[in-house]
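Thread: quick sanity check before group meeting

JM: Hey all, I'm pulling together slides for Thursday and realized we never actually wrote out the predicted structure for the chain we discussed last week. Dropping the sequence here so it's in one place. If anyone has concerns about the input, flag it before I start.
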Amino acid sequence: MTESKWRRIFPAYLPNSITFLSLGCGLISIILSSQGFVLQAAFCILISVFLDSLDGYLARKLKAASNFGMQLDSLSDIVCFGVAPILLVWKHLDIAAQVSIWVLPVFVLQIIAGAFRLARFNLQTPKQHSHAETLGLTITQSGLALALAVLSDLSIDTYALPVWTFALLSLLISYLMVSKLIFPSPGWYAPTRLFYLFYLLLGAVLVYVSSIFTMLLVIYLGGLAVSISRQFFLISFKSNIL
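JM (edit): ok, ran it. Output follows.
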């Protein structure tokens, strides 16, 4: 293969290759969770989150975005951020002797919401796809939330998070995925610069008393709350003006 031909082919295949790596990490996470290695499984999901962001960035940077890549990315996402995080939480609760059959419908609802979110995204026209904001919470962020929750719980000497905490978190992110709320991306977790200092101080306190994963989880959920409340405030403000 000549060098010029390789230069034409390489950009087209690189983003999809990253997607395959992400899919592999998702599969490894599922296998590790099934064997009780929840810590390692959670880290595999974090790696998948990084790779999922990387493949999209490279596709845009190399101008290699395609319908095939979009469909492949969605199939990978349902495994890495749909199935893998749910199995991770289930096994974590099982090890903590907190697993209960009543949470199964909640997890089923989450996987349905994730599939709905991906299908809705794939049906949008290219003009509707925005890199600055997303319609509804992405399934990637939902998987990240569950992985951080498990890592936060593991970092504590005793299992502190009860089963209903994971159930409520699952219900919340399920709603946010199917909602029509607009989430800024990628910096939605820090909507304004005024929150940087607050996040820094909060993070220092949380790291001191618990762990960095607890810090990340609280910042994640705090960012969601700020983003949602700001949007509802803007809607209310506009309606009062009109």
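AS: nice. The first helix runs from residue 3 to 34. The helical segments are 3-34, 38-61, 67-95, 104-123, 139-154, 163-178, 194-209, 212-241.
JM: adding both to the slides.
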